[in-house]
Amino acid sequence: MAEAAVTKDDPTASAPSETSAPPTATPDARPSELAMSDAWDRAIETGIKWAAYGLLAGGAVGVLLFRGGMSRSAVTGLGTGVGIGMAYADARREFADLAAHTRTDRLSVDPAPRTV
Q: What are the extents of the domains in the chain?
């Protein structure tokens, strides 16, 4: 069965509405509050994870290589510090990327022209 073709001259043809469907949102098109919250969640999670990894690695090295309790504690503390430092560097990079992305979004918005 053939469908009837709608021509431009047909006054009964309905034009597609401009507000029929909202544009699809991309994963990066979310409010900055949610992006900041996600960044903080990842920073805290990464900090806890890397601190634990550093504690375990430092403790293992301390047990294997050193005999005294103070030496073992120092190496364990050093390993924990390295883990926290790695987490800090990762979080700092992520927040810098987020800030740069937010700044470029704000710069790309063309403000309303001023009338003098």
A: 43-105
Give the angle 77-81-82 at the CA atoms, nearest 5°. 120
Q: Measure the CA–CA gap between 109 and 106, rounded to whole angstroms.
A: 6
Question: Cβ–Cβ contacts within 10 Å for residue 101, how many?
Answer: 13
pLDDT digits (tens, 9 = 90+) for 38-47: 989 999 999 9
Pick the closest to residue 95 from 32, 30, 40, 33 (CA basis): 40
CB contact set of 102 (below 8 Å; sequence gap of 6+): 32, 35
Q: How far is CA 107 from CA 17, 28, 82, 96, 110, in A?
A: 31, 16, 37, 16, 8
pLDDT tens for 37-85 read 898 999 999 999 999 999 999 999 999 998 888 999 999 999 999 999 9
Query: Per the confidence metrics, is the pTM higher than 0.85?
Result: no
Q: What's the CA gap between 76 and 81, in Å, rounded?
A: 9
Question: How big is the chain, counted in residues?
Answer: 116
